Amino acid sequence: MKQIFTMAMFATLLAACKKDQYYLYNDIARIQFGPAPNRIYQTSFDLADTVKPYTFYYEPAGTSQDTVFFDIYAIGGVSDKDRPFALEQIMLEEATNAEPGVHYKPFSDPSLKDAYVIRAGEVHTSVPIVLLRDASLKDESVKLQITVKPNESFQPGEKTKLWRRVDFSDRLSQPGLWNATATQYYWGKYSMTKHAFMIEKTGEKWNDEFLALVNTDYAMISFWRLKLKTLLTDYNNAHPGEPLTDESGEPVIFP
Fold it and tell me: β-pairing, 83-84 with 51-55?
């Protein structure tokens, strides 16, 4: 009976630890990134949102900036007052790093002062990263890697959850979901030529949002696979001896 009781207590403690993974520190207030609030207790999603791809390519010509969001959490419980947190850029080696004031709005910009705050009574907020549509993004992709910075309100939390990154440009770029095995199985190897063809011929963006919708509906998968194969056949028939090829010179194909 004692052994059963001990095992039961151990199971209860284990469950409590899992539930309180975002409230582990009680020595000092800390802060760290995490998944969406509805997934914070699913450990498989802990690092699911570390890198966001983004492109201004789909936006109207008059769009000069846009915002992406990351989820961030205060560790150690709530406070009865608002608590500002601080961010800073991490410069990456062998990468084209985003420039503050050119590619993104600096974190010290007065317009963002009230955005980087954990409100009283809360432990979570969405962190806005304001991207700027600089002309250089037509020719190159840049990386903006950020981390939390110690301040009077917070110290850093778990080491593996202290950073996030945005890879962005103003040209067509590979959606993050195209790295998934299922996406490659349905739509084949990625190329910008193929992507542009899909957009032009169907009127759909074929970005992460659209792929997430299509990839979960077998009827839509079947429809679009047949549609794209037909469109590609029509194109190649209209250009005898000059089939559609991608930027590396390989023929564009759909599985």
Answer: unpaired
Contact 35, 77 (CB under 8 A): no
Is residue 7 predicted with pLDDT exceeding 90? Answer: no
Tell me how many degrees the CA angle 228-234-237 measures, rounded to the nearest 5.
140
**SS (HEC) of 66-133:** EEEEEEEEEECCCCCCCEECEEEEECCCCCCECCECCCECCCCCHHHCCCCEECCCCCEEEEEEEEEC
Residue with tokens 């995490």: 34
Q: Is the pTM of this model over 0.90?
A: no
DSSP 180-205: SHHHHHHH-S--HHHHHHHHHHHS--
CA 75 to chain centre: 22
Least confident stretch, 7-11, 97-101, 171-175, 181-185 = 7-11
Cα separation, 87 vs 238, whole angstroms: 54
Summarize pLDDT for 182-205 with one digit per residue, the tens: 888 999 999 999 999 999 999 999
Separation CA 202–CA 192 (nearest Å): 15
